Amino acid sequence: MATDDELWPPFGPAADFREQLARGRGRPDEVHGREDHARGQARGRGRQGADLRRGPDSRGRGHGDQHGAADLRGRADQRGRARSGLSREEIVDVAIAIADSEGAESVSMRKIAQVLRAGAMSLYWHLAGKEHLLELMLDALMADMVVPEPTGDWQADLRVQASSQRQVLLRHKWVIDFIAARPPLGPNTLRNLDKSLATLDCLDLDTDTAINILQTVNTYVLGAVVRELGELRTQREQQKWVTAETNVNAKLQQWRERLEATGMFDHFLRILRDDVDPDAEETRDARFEFGLDCVLEGIAAKLAKRAG
């Protein structure tokens, strides 16, 4: 039976790592030196992402030392890591914990090694480099997404999957910066995709249509999460303004009166008159479900029209 390493496609960092192992990989310090050289060339070409520096700056994530190495070690121990040795799973788990706490751009081999109380070079026995690490991090989180066994109710099954995907992305906010541009093709991703396609077997669809349905639902979830993260950022900015300003209500009323005086924004002013907050935190779940209803019911209507 193929190992998980062998389930990755024959290109990209995972394939490079397999090839290095097949050739009889050199010492970690030799590999590290080659990667430093390659990464320097990549930066010279303007390549982004090789050192995980794309991250949640635009999301307003926290940075700095507010979560120290001791805190991350505590998280590692809570997830059941063995202290007796170093494994790839342990490295990936710590990398995810760092990204969750400080942002993806804070992930480094040196920081991971500090948390694990290991030598940084020892990590390179398990990884081809940081691009490989990123792929492993993304694929590891795919295992957290619930893809139910097919029940025959494809809409209910896809709803469970979409809701779980949203929750995983909101727990690991940094992922949204990578997942749309470079979805991993690792073993967990392949297992989820295979099971998702099985969910649609009851519809007897051609492969193109089945893939289009899954991509449509996935696109909705990604878009909804991007909007929610934007709402969270705006909420923080507004709270800072409310805290810093005096006479907040008076200033908002003056703004409203200026809008009314133009005679141009009656539909927008209706939102204010009806006291509707389109970004209200307490309605996020309901708004997500409303949109998902529209997507799933729209797919069902499309399929019924084609069948008729």
Brief rundown of the structure:
The chain is mainly alpha-helical and 308 residues long. Helices cover 63% and strands 0% of the residues.
Structure characterization notes:
The chain is mostly helical and 308 residues long. The chain starts with 12 loop residues before the first helix and ends with a helix. The chain contains 13 helices and no strands. The protein folds into 2 domains: 138 residues, Homeodomain-like (Arc Repressor Mutant, subunit A, Orthogonal Bundle), CATH 1.10.10; 122 residues, Orthogonal Bundle (Tetracycline Repressor, domain 2), CATH 1.10.357.
User: Describe the biggest sheet?
Assistant: none
CATH level-3 fold name of the largest domain: Arc Repressor Mutant, subunit A
What integer value in Å does the Rg equal? 24 Å
Name given to the CATH homologous superfamily of the largest domain: Homeodomain-like
What attributes characterize this protein structure?
mainly alpha, 308 residues, single chain, 13 helices, Tetracycline Repressor, domain 2, Arc Repressor Mutant, subunit A, 2 domains
